[in-house]
Design a protein that fits this description.
Elements (H helix, E strand, L loop, with lengths): L4 H6 L5 E2 L26 E6 L4 H10 L4 E7 L3 H18 L7 E3 L2 H6 L5 E4 L6 H10 L3 E4 L7 H14 L3 E3 L7 H11 L6 E9 L18 H5 L25 H18 L6 E7 L13 E8 L2 E8 L11 E7 L2 E5 L3 E6 L1 E2 L2 E2 L4 E5 L4 H15 L8 H20 L3 E4 L4 E2 L2 H4 L11 E2 L3
Helix pairs in contact: 2-3, 5-6, 6-11, 7-9, 9-11
The structure holds nicotinamide-adenine-dinucleotide.
Amino acid sequence: MAQSRREFLNSGLSLAAGAGLAGILPVGFGLQSCTGRKGANDRIRIALIGCRNQGYNNVCTFIEQPDVDLVALCDIDKNILDSRFADIQKYAYDKKVTVPKPDKYEDFRKVLERKDIDAVIIATPDHWHALITIMACQAGKDVYVEKPVANSVFEADQMVHAAERYKRVIQVGQWQRSGLHWQEMVDFIQSEKLGPISHVEVWRYGGNPVPKLPDAPKPQGVNYDLWLGPAQLRPFNPNRFHYNFRWFWDYAGGKMTDWGVHLLDMAMWSLKLKQPDTIKATGGNLVYPDDAMETPDTLTVEYQFDQTLVVWQNNFGLKTNEFGFDHGLEFHGNNGTLRANRNFWEVIPASLNGVPATEPVPRNMNAGNDLSLHVRNFLDAIKMRNFDTAANIKIGRDVARVAHMGNISYRTGQLLHWNADNGSFNEQVANSYLTPSFRKPWEINKI
Ligand SMILES: NC(=O)c1ccc[n+]([C@@H]2O[C@H](COP(=O)([O-])OP(=O)(O)OC[C@H]3O[C@@H](n4cnc5c(N)ncnc54)[C@H](O)[C@@H]3O)[C@@H](O)[C@H]2O)c1
């Protein structure tokens, strides 16, 4: 059962994450911790919230850094908490790094209460990201939060305001931003050697079906109410739980917010794109029409950003495109095409009467250390109180907004026109998707 509001307030933490709460937050819950600059040799004490898949990947990378102490693990699933505790011990031992003995928690609010924790990693399903991030900011923690930063545009905006208001360093888990081959790609595009770039293709193919399963009792050791949090109350269904939550609107936005935010971010970064003028989505569950997924297994979204058309595609039925790549981007300029993915980037010149319009660029390979660089960038930013991390919260917000716009066009079935001046669509029906409806007592107030 959810605790009552009074119980929450008595337990020392506010449910609501937002403005106007300073007066009701307990002494000690807040900006006392970790506001000052740390020295280069100081250690950073971290906690992981959400331990199963990406949380585990992240935390392994953190503990390999010489100045990190992992002091707390938190998960609503005791089975995951215990198994990841053991996995982390083994990983640290194998890697010959300090073997941590973190305390274990079911409830993230207990983690946020601890004044000795400098930063939290948030790797829960998407519908929790904004609430925990904002509460962590209020508690004086710096935050490494997974992408997409939030499950709605409103939440993402409040995260930006919270980081500014509480002066917290935030790194979003868009680790491609720290990848050296991606940075080289961006530099090349900005050199304008490709000429005007009017068309960018962005795609992620492949995916597994999710056959329908009946509702079932929640597994032993799982606090299902705390997994649902602000999402609508429903019976437990194994399909909507670990990992597969991605395919259900209450918790996430399908392949678009899973892979789309990573790859669309590369297009937006390279071409300095912010907000599209129009968004047009088509698609459906065309490959697996009878399975359980709500989000589309086949989706094409055309975004028009001023002079550039950016087209996103996901398709669970296709393995690769005609050149053999299951994901990537192609920037089509007048002088040639730049193709990039997580492994390499290259340039294929256009031919003008048999003459290459620009120099070819052979494949530049990824060094394979993007996540380590990203984590290091965050830790250094904490020490320097540098708010401009490689994937700061505005970067995360901007691409999450674009991804959600694509999904909103799909869900409304409409060509949408975005008004960047007032942050809303011209089409009224689409605006109702910008703000989530939270299950009480959880809420996020406008900050
Ligand atoms: N950056 C990347 O490359 C990358 C890769 C994979 C996933 N992700 C992101 O990471 C997030 C998690 O995805 P995943 O695949 O690891 O999911 P997952 O379901 O495997 O793991 C999520 C974990 O969070 C726990 N959890 C849920 N609510 C919680 C709460 N209130 N408090 C504490 N723990 C809670 C779950 O029990 C589970 O152990 C998603 O937002 C996803 O988009 C990012």
